[in-house]
Specification:
By secondary structure, the chain is mostly helical. The chain is 72% helix and 4% strand. It is elongated and about 60 Å long.
Amino acid sequence: MKMTDGIKINNLQWAAVWYLIAGLGFICFGFPFWFLNAVDKIPEHHKILPFVILIDDLLPLSFPFWEQLISSVTLFLGAYSLWKIGEPTGFGTRRNFLFVSMAGGISYFLACWMPFPFAPVGAFLNGTGMVLVGIACLRSRIWIDWKRYLPLFAGSFPFLFMFPIRFLTGARPAAIIGLWGFAWILLGVACLLRSNEIRRHFRNNALV
């Protein structure tokens, strides 16, 4: 299957937009914990199964709810945009690693109403998916220079920082989760720069 430069550029630009929005969402989540001494707590809820809780207000007007909702949707759309064009994995079976990241976005979406178990599952799937994509990126060599390490960096973040702190303290590391946003923003920047590379290559070929 041959992918035109225009389609690649368009989807990479959209992937950049989605990951930038997702990253800003994570940063907005972390801001109160960094600077306002916020306390992490679950909204009013009840158990529907031993390990599943449901938020009582299913459509609250609170900013944290909508920030999480938008971030989850944009994480899914970012992975989907990359999957459509086989970036940065190529079009082989490794492209399907992005399905794991998409599942992570869906889990985060469900976590808006059922924080347990979907919030930790979403973090695990997003991290695992991007680790797999990052390894595929290194092998495919479609992305070059520092950009090729960004998917692996974004995927490794929860395993290097979030999960160990959660294990050691027994509490969700809300401030650290917010820092994950910078990794997603860098991934968005990498997507944008990659689209510019393809555009320059297309223009140079057109002048030949």
